[in-house]
Amino acid sequence: MSGARNRRGMAGARMRPQPSSQQRWWQAAWAKVRAGFTWTKAFVVGGVTLLATAAAIPGVLPWLHDHGRDLVGEEPLTVEGEAKPDLLAGVYWATDEVITAPADWDVFERISSSGAQMGTSGHVVKLHSNRSARIVIEGLTAVVEQRREPLSGTAYVADPQGGDMEALLVDIPLDRGGGEVPALVRRDGGEPRPYGTDGRIRYIEQGVAERLLVKASTETCHCTWRLRIDYSYRGEQGRLVVPPRGQPAFETTAWSRHKVEYDMHSAEDRVPRRHDCVRDPHSCRREP
């Protein structure tokens, strides 16, 4: 009897169908999707909580913002420079080329393309902060790459028209040093002093443009040079040069006895006049 009952029980028990391999694959995939939703939800909730907490603590969000830029390798400070001779000095340029063509406005293009600013050169350096934290300018130094004989071909002279008095004026006396020349600053009409020696350090904040008006001078050389900027940010030290490596350096050449000079500073009608500085040296300027 017991054997019969067991057979009937086995016969009456229904076997559950086993899922196919394709169904098992879908079930496993769906389990992974649900787990992904769970982790995504946890990540979103955690991120929102972190941002809310950071927003409630002063200085945390700016720190996170700056640290994220540090991680991707973005420079805290970027700079750019260009020659602007008419801002501080006059448009004084010289070349080794001897130009004998009649005086006209194209002469300056020829001289400036192959020559250098003469006697006193003017440059504008623009500083841009890429961080919310303050960036402190620790030092300004001219790094001289070459010292050669002054250019002595043709010169072009025009007096200055004015400058930007709100920017920091930086003097580079190229004849006072060798390979490195500390920059000087002149404040409140006083004598030029090395940058930082008076305790007044320049700093840069994000969203506020900073400009340096750089005036280099020489009586002895045709110098090529770059401005080195040392700075600090959140306890870290950094250094940049302008113009950056790979671009032409700044150039300044001394005044010399030029064979022909195009001089427009005394022309009331603003028409260029040509002077022969060798035959008639008194007709030409010898300094800025």
From TrEMBL:
Return the annotated region ranges for Disordered.
1-21
| Protein's UniProt name | Uncharacterized protein
